[in-house]
C-alpha cells in the first residue's frame, strides 16, 4: 500500500518509468492512465498535474528512454577508444537482458503510431552511425562500413525478435555470453588494424 507521502512525492519520472515498464512487456497500446495510476498508488486526477493526456505521457516516456539509451551507449560503448573493443562491447551489451532491449523490440511492432515510428527511426539511425564509425575506425571504407554496420544491427534486431517471440526460452537454453562472443567473432575482423581516429 502506497503512503500519502509517497503519493505527494511522485513526479513525471515516476509516471514515465511505470509507462516504460508497460511498453516493454505489453506494448504502447496497453498503456492506460487509470491502470498506471493504480500501480503507482495515486488517483487518475493527479496524472493531469504532469501530463496533458495519454499521448503526452507516452511521448514523454519514450523520450526519457531515448535519453537514457544515448547515455548508456556513450558511457559503455562510445567511451572505449579502441574500435575493436568498442564493437565487442556493443555485441556484449546487446545480449544483456536490459529493459531497453525489450522496449526497442516492442516498439518495432508498434510502428503504426506516427510518434513511435519517428522516435524509432531516430534511435536506429543513431545506433547505426555508432557502428559505422567504429567499422570505419578499424579500416573499412565508408560504403563498406555502412553495409557492415547494417549487417551487425540486423543481427541485433533479429536476436531481439527471436528472444521476444520465444518468451525467454532462447535465453534459458543457450549461453548468451557465448552467443555474443561468437557473433562478435563473425562480424569483427581480427586481421584489420585500427585506423587512426582523429
From TrEMBL:
<dbReference type="InterPro" id="IPR001647">
    <property type="entry name" value="HTH_TetR"/>
</dbReference>
<feature type="DNA-binding region" description="H-T-H motif">
    <location>
        <begin position="32"/>
        <end position="51"/>
    </location>
</feature>
<dbReference type="InterPro" id="IPR009057">
    <property type="entry name" value="Homeodomain-like_sf"/>
</dbReference>
<feature type="domain" description="HTH tetR-type">
    <location>
        <begin position="9"/>
        <end position="69"/>
    </location>
</feature>
<keyword id="KW-0238">DNA-binding</keyword>
<dbReference type="InterPro" id="IPR050109">
    <property type="entry name" value="HTH-type_TetR-like_transc_reg"/>
</dbReference>
<protein>
    <submittedName>
        <fullName>TetR/AcrR family transcriptional regulator</fullName>
    </submittedName>
</protein>
<dbReference type="Pfam" id="PF00440">
    <property type="entry name" value="TetR_N"/>
</dbReference>
Amino acid at each position: 500500500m502506497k503512503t500519502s507521502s509517497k503519493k505527494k512525492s511522485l513526479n513525471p519520472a515516476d509516471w514515465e518509468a511505470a509507462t516504460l515498464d508497460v511498453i516493454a512487456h505489453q506494448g504502447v497500446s496497453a498503456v492506460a492512465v487509470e491502470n498506471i495510476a493504480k500501480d503507482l498508488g495515486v488517483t487518475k486526477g493527479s496524472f493531469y498535474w504532469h501530463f496533458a493526456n495519454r499521448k503526452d505521457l507516452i511521448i514523454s516516456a519514450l523520450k526519457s528512454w531515448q535519453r537514457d539509451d544515448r547515455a548508456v551507449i556513450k558511457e559503455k560503448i562510445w567511451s572505449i577508444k579502441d574500435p575493436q573493443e568498442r564493437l565487442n562491447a556493443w555485441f556484449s551489451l546487446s545480449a544483456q537482458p536490459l529493459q531497453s532491449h525489450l522496449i526497442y523490440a516492442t516498439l518495432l511492432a508498434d510502428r503504426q503510431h506516427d510518434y513511435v515510428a519517428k522516435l524509432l527511426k531516430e534511435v536506429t539511425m543513431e545506433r547505426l552511425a555508432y557502428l559505422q564509425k567504429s567499422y570505419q575506425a578499424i579500416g573499412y571504407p565508408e560504403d563498406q562500413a555502412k553495409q557492415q554496420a547494417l549487417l551487425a544491427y540486423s543481427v541485433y534486431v533479429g536476436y531481439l525478435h527471436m528472444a521476444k517471440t520465444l518468451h525467454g526460452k532462447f535465453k534459458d537454453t543457450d549461453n548468451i555470453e557465448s552467443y555474443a562472443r561468437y557473433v562478435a567473432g563473425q562480424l569483427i575482423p581480427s586481421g584489420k588494424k585500427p585506423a587512426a581516429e582523429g
